[in-house]
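Chapter summary example.
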Amino acid sequence: MLGVISEIIDNSVIVNLTIDLSKQANLVNLHTVFEDNDKKIVGEIVSSTKTTLKVNIVGEIQGNEFSPGIKTKPSYRSVVRLITMPELELVLGPQVPRQSEITFGYSNIYQNYKINVNINAFFSNHFAILGNSGAGKSFSVARILQNVFGSPDKSPVNANMFLFDAFGEYTRAFQNIDQINPMMHYKTYTTNVNSSDGELLHIPLFLLGIDDIALLLNVTNQNQLPIIEKALKLVTILTGDEQDVIKYKNDIIARALEDILLSGHQSTKIRDQVVAVLTKFNTSQLNLESLIVQPGYTRTLKQCLYIDKMGKLQEMELIVNFVKTFILDEEEPIEQPMQKMIPYQLKDLETAMDFALISEGILKSDKVYDYANVLSVRLHSLVESDSHVYFDYPSYISKDAYIRELLTNREGQRCQIVNFNISYIDDRLAKTLTKILSKLLFDQAVINPNRGSIPYHIVIEEAHRYVQKDTDTEILGYNIFDRIVKEGRKYGVLLGLITQRPSELSDTAISQCSNFVILRMLHPKDLTYIKEMVPNISLEIVQQLKNLSPGNCIAFGSAFKVPISMRFEKPNPEPLSNNVDINKIWY
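The structure predicted for these 587 residues follows.
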C-alpha cells in the first residue's frame, strides 16, 4: 500500500504517502490501482513530493478488461497500490503480440516492456508523427514500417503504402526489404531526370481532370475553371489531322475571326488582330494564304486585308462571307468528333487551351484577357520547362491500370511500398504532384464497387509543406487532403502526416487524425497548437514533449488504451537522415 487518498480534484487524486520514498525507486509515470472491493480504478503517477503523489485517473479494470477513460472516481477508503504485471498487460497489452498486432517499440517506464499495437486500430485510421528536426521522425517511420513489412511470419501482401519522400531518405531503409521478407517488394519513383536510381515519375496528363489542371496551373480565379474545362473537352477533338478535327478547328477560328471583323474597331486594328489569330491558329483550309476566288481574279486572304488611303478595309464583306463558310450551322447541334482515347501531351493541351481562349472571347474583352491569358502563359512555361517530362506518357492507360503499374516493379512483382522521391523539384510542383497523385488514388477508391477492399495509405514526409491551409477550398470547393481525412476512412484511403511544424498543417487534417506519435517538440507555438488541436492530450504530456531524447515519443490515440511513453529501436538499415558529421569533415 502506497498511502491514503487525501483529495480528489477533477480527474486527479492526491495520495498522502505511508511509505518512505527515499528508500524507493522513482515512482513517477508508474501506474497505480485504487482498489475498493471489486472495483479497480487505474491511475498514472504524474508528480510526487516526499510526502504526496499526484495521480491522474486513466481508466478502470472490470473483470479481465481495461476500459480507458474516467467513468467513476475512487473512494477515499480505496487501497492505493502499484499495478501488478497481469494488470499492466490489460492496460499496455500483452508481451507476446497477437496475430492482429505488431511491435512498435519498448516502454520507457517499464524496462524492456514491448509495446504491441493492434494493426486495425492504428492503420485503419489517419495518423500523425510529429517532432522537431533531429527528434527521430524518419527513424520512427522507418522502424514502424520495417516492423510491419519485415516479418516473414506475417506478410501484408495486399498493402499499398505510398510514401511521399521530401528528402529522398527512405530508399536505403526499404530497398532490400525483399531480402528480409521475400514476399515484400519496394519501388521508388524519382523526380531526378538525370538519375537511374528508380523509375522516373510519369503522370498521364490525359487522366487529369479540371481540378488537377487547375492545381497544376495555380488557378486563383474561379472564372478560369470554365476555360480549363473547355480546353479539356477540345484537346482530344483537336489532337490529330482528321477531317472532322480540321472542320471543328475551322469553326472555332472562323467564329473568332467573325467577332473581330464585325467588332466595329478601326480597320488597322481589325487587320492586325486577324493576322495575329491566323498566324497562331490555322488549318490547311483556313489560313492567311487561303484563296478567295472571285469572277475574274483570285487572291489570298492576306491580300484581301489591304487598307485603302481612306483607312477602310475595302474587302470587308468579301472576307466576312468567306469566313462564314467555315462556321458550322447553329440550327443543328454541332456534331463533335467522338472523344478519342488519345495519350495527349502538354503541347496538345496548350493548343487546346489557346483555342478555348479565343472561343471564350479573349480578344474581345480586356477583362477576360486579364484572368484568362495567365493560364496560357503558365501552361506555356510548363511546356518549355524541364518539368514537362513528368507528364509525358507514351500510350493510353486507364486509371485502374496506371495505379496497378505504380505498384508493379520492372520484374513484374507487386510492390507493397512505393516511394515518390520528390526532393529534386521545387516545393510548389512537389505539392501539386502530391495532391494530384493523392486525388488519383482517392478517386479510384471512391468508384471501387467493393468499398474499402483495396486500402491505400498515403504517408507524407514534411507534411507541413504540402498539407496546408490552401485556397483550394475557395477555388475548387475542397482541399484533397481535407477530403481524404474527412471521407477517406470509409473508402480505405488513410493519411499519415509526418511533420516538424504541426502549426503549419491544415487544421482539418490534423484534427481528424486518430493516432499520434509525438517526439521531442520545443517550439512554443507548436506545443500550444498540439494542446489545442490534438484530442485527449493533457498538460503533463505536453510538458514531457520538451524533454524527450531522440527516438523517444509519447504515443496515444485509438490504437493505445492510455498515452504511452515509449522508444523505438533503430531501424536497420537506417534511412539517409543522419546529421552531418562536422567533426569528421572539418578535421
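To summarize the output: The radius of gyration is 33 Å.
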